[in-house]
Every structure is written in structure tokens, then in C-alpha cells.
Amino acid sequence: MPTTTTDILIIGAGLAGLSAANDLQQAGHQVLVVDKGRGLGGRLAGRRIGDATFDHGAQFMTAREPRFKAAVADWIAAGVAEQWYSSYPGQPNGHPRYRGVPTMTAVAKHLAIGLDIMRATRVVTVSRQQTGWLAELDNGNRVSADKLLITSPVPQTLELLKGINIPADKYARLEHIEYESCIAVMAILDGPTAIEAPGAIALEEGPIAWISDNLQKGVSTVPAVTIHGSGEFSAEHIDHDRTQIGQQLIDAAAQYLGSAQVTEYQVHGWRYSKPSIVDPDPCLLLSHGTDLPPLAVAGDAFAGPRFEGAVQSGWAAAKMLMDAHS
Length: 326
Ligand SMILES: Cc1cc2nc3c(=O)[nH]c(=O)nc-3n(C[C@H](O)[C@H](O)[C@H](O)COP(=O)(O)OP(=O)(O)OC[C@H]3O[C@@H](n4cnc5c(N)ncnc54)[C@H](O)[C@@H]3O)c2cc1C
Hints:
Elements: E1 3-11, H1 15-26, E2 31-34, E3 46-49, E4 52-55, H2 66-78, E5 81-85, E6 97-100, H3 105-111, E7 117-118, E8 123-128, E9 133-137, E10 142-150, H4 154-160, H5 168-176, E11 178-189, E12 200-202, E13 208-213, H6 214-217, E14 224-229, H7 231-237, H8 242-252, H9 254-257, E15 262-277, E16 284-285, E17 295-297, H10 300-303, H11 307-323
Parallel strand pairs: 1-2, 1-10, 2-7, 10-17
Antiparallel strand pairs: 3-4, 5-6, 8-9, 9-10, 11-14, 11-15, 12-13, 13-14, 16-17
The structure holds flavin-adenine dinucleotide.
């Protein structure tokens, strides 16, 4: 069975994994990132349907911490991000919202430059070796690494860690983390929506949490909306017939679509969309205080349930792994 060897294996090419990989590689470590997805960015997701383009995962990022603000400024300079808007229509909320250009995934693609990434490859199991970790991949190959960072949504991480002797207190913290689900509808329209500038609406009640007009946003060249079901609605319907659930959300969005008719739609179910219960630490070194080789977990469930949190968690995990000794 072919085995690739690296200093540090990172599972997940989402924001946390890519951010950690950049810091570790810049510090001189050999890093390999493996992701089961064909695209990069995890929950930063874009899709094309015919001539329409959609952001159907994360819709925007906000920036609070200085290092993250500087990163956003770099992305804007590189042409992969721009300010979308600074307040919801009718609400005095001046926090700038930035978007990826042309789609949110552009930021992930930018972060991936120069990294060694295996895409469309799932890590099936991880096991400890004498001095490191061995990951078995779904293509039959294996990766041997001194240190391991896992950035998948935590329930998936717990699946991977089955059989690894994690300290009980840390295991309990991982089990405590919870996520909302989100059903995302991507609908192509035959004309413009009735949504006012800047082309997005967040709703507090009912089956819909968010609607964005990808044409106004600058993502699509033809009228196209993304509709996100609320956490409650999505949890109830995530395993139901997708076509029917999509139609239900489209019907509920009627007043925002105006006279435009839906000509085609697709539905994506995010079982783990945004964390609803997060861990207070920015990442966890699960191997700390054990005889396990260095093993860390990171992602938006640690530094905060959003884009910025995922990046900061990746940075924190990189630092923690640099300091952890095999
Ligand atoms: C519908 C939706 C809307 C959102 N809206 C916003 C928003 O507007 N603003 C905001 O700030 N945040 C938003 N978020 C949250 C934001 O997208 C996340 O916080 C962030 O992208 C999480 O990044 P991450 O690296 O922690 O995880 P992920 O992006 O989930 O990355 C984990 C990666 O691990 C990979 N993986 C998992 N298991 C394996 C395996 N066994 N082998 C190989 N690879 C594996 C996955 O394919 C994935 O790419 C939204 C999320 C969703 C889903």
C-alpha cells in the first residue's frame, strides 16, 4: 500500500485547515492537507447551475481581530475579497460584511496557493504509530505523519477518533459541541428579485433564515437566489425529500422574489452548518498530558461559529502544534 510521509497531516481544506497549513509551512514544516471534497474551502461553497452562480455556504465574513483584519486587507488587495455592505437594510448595524470575489471560495483558493493538497480524498481511519500517526485514505493509500490536525466538523472528528484513547475531559468537551443544520436552496429566476440593495435579507421568524440575491451581490450574471432554511426548519427536514423541501422554501420566499419565477433549483443539505454550542478554547491539543503523538483539533467550533473563528482556530492550532513535541 503506497504511503506518503509528511511532518504534519491536516484533515480538511476548509478555512481552519488552510490557515493552519499556511502558518506551519511558513515556519518550515512539511505539511500535507487532505480533503474529501472536490473543491476547496469546505463550508465556503460555490456552485454553478447553467449560467447562474451561487454562494450556498457562508455568505460573508466580518472582521474583528487585528490579524484577521490584516488578512482581509490582503485578500482585498489580491482581488479575492471586497466589502459587500455595512448594515442590514433598516438596521443601524455598521459592521462591514466582506464577500469573496467572484465567490466565497475565492478566499480558500487564495489560501491554498503553494500548499500540498490532496482533494477528493477521504481519510477513512487514523491510528497511532510508535512515533506518529497513520491515516488510511479511501483511495487505498496511506499517509504517515509526525503530527496530526483534524478540522472536520466535530461529530465527524469523533468518528475518526474512535479507538484513540482521548482524555475523558477533552472527549466530553468535544461531545458537548453542537451544530445547526441548514437546508440551502439555489434557485435560478427568470427576472430580478424584489430584494432591495444590497441583495440580502436575514429573517428572525419562519422557515427561512436568509435569502441572498446572487445577481445583486455580484456572484451571478443571471438572476439567482440562495435561500437558507432556519435552524429549526432545517433540523426537521434535513432527511426529507429535497425537491419538496426546496419547493417549500421557495414558496415561503415568494414575497422576496416578486414577479420572478423559478426556472430551476437545486438543494444542498448542510448537516453541520454553524456551531450552536462552541468550545471556549481556540483549539484543543488532545494529546496533551498523554503519550499520544501530537494531535490537535480545530475549526469554527472552537474560536467562534463563523468564518473569522475558523481562521483563528487554524492559526491557534498551528502555533500549538509547532510547540508540541513528538
Ligand atoms: C449555510 C452556511 C452559511 C454560513 N454563513 C456564514 C456567514 O455568512 N458568515 C460566516 O462568518 N460564517 C458562515 N458560515 C460558517 C462558516 O462557513 C464556517 O464557520 C467555516 O467555513 C468553517 O470552516 P472550518 O474550516 O472550521 O470547517 P469546514 O469548512 O467544514 O472544513 C472542514 C473540511 O474537512 C473536510 N473533511 C471532513 N471530514 C473529512 C475526512 N474524513 N477526510 C478528508 N476531509 C474531510 C471537509 O470536506 C471540509 O472541507 C456558514 C456556514 C454554512 C454551512
